[in-house]
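Problem: given the chain below (109 residues), write out its structure.
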Amino acid sequence: AHYLARNKELVEALVTVSKLHNSLLHTPTLATILHLSRHRENAKLLVLQTEGLLPSLVLGMNSPDATARRHAVRAIQNLSSNRPCRPHIIPSTRGLIERLCKIALGNAS
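Solution.
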């Protein structure tokens, strides 16, 4: 995972595909981002150097697929548990708080 998160082209492709709700790769792509976000150094790199990652996770939380939504929420959880990432997540991610509230209240669709 360490080397995968440092491959800019791969991470950019993951971000792009994660936004395509009708793609067969949508859910596996969010699962891969979730896996990459588990590692502390990866989280910092993903948040601070990957343009579009956080908005793509918010879009993932709007997925029609429940598993994809869960992967997106857990990736946000992993990223926000990393202290250097916290100040960048909420201010730079439009719609994040609203979407998390809807999911928490059981209104995932």
